[in-house]
Amino acid sequence: MVDISSSLAETHNVEDIxxxxxxxxxxxxxxxxxxxxxxxxxxxxxxxxxxxxxLKQYQSxxxxxxxxxxxxxxxxxxxHFIYPQMTDNYTYLTLDxxxxxxxxxxxxxxxxxxFINTARNRHGKVLVHGNTGISxxxxxxxxxxxxxxxxxxxxxxxxxxQKRGCVNPNPGFASQLNEYEVIYKTQKYFARHQGQxxxxxxxxxxxxxxxxxxxxxxxxxxxxxxxxxxxxxxxVSVRKNPNTVSEFCSQDES
Length: 254
Description:
By secondary structure, the protein is of the alpha/beta class.
């Protein structure tokens, strides 16, 4: 094991110690501790960062990166200092989520996915931020990456950590995201076969191994309509001009 303390025995600067640690543990990605204060592009058009990266005084960086949409994640106790600051310049999606292992994170992923896809389909770019950009906002980005790129939680976490090394969803979020792979793949399966399921038996073409899908596993059947379960509890505010809001709300989920 590397003894970091002995390597920096003469310094009392905590940030120097953490930066040295990051060079040891994240040599390939080039990640260092100071980068946590900035946003990073996880996949093309999708950025993850802390609240400070969305402050009005740093708008020049948002403009430089081409940000057009912002997902603001906070809980009610943080609403007095974490809130959309530039509603005239950006389209916001605001979510109230507590950073607790008992909080349900998966119910927010569908609306976040729709919001991100809407922006990216219009050649826009999205910043997702919480307070520190480590747990809640990171979990939402991980869920988006999983569903969009057909990744497992482990694969998505590896990708996101390569871009933002401090990402660390709380244990409850991590456990839910591990289960999310089964959920989103089931959703995609039923979406692909919805047309065939609506046909009468004599209209449906027979394929080899079709019998495997005649009786879905109880777990799959239970979560098949997951998207319909959760929307009522989501505290969402989308702020900009009325035309943008109406257009966003009228689209089908991607």
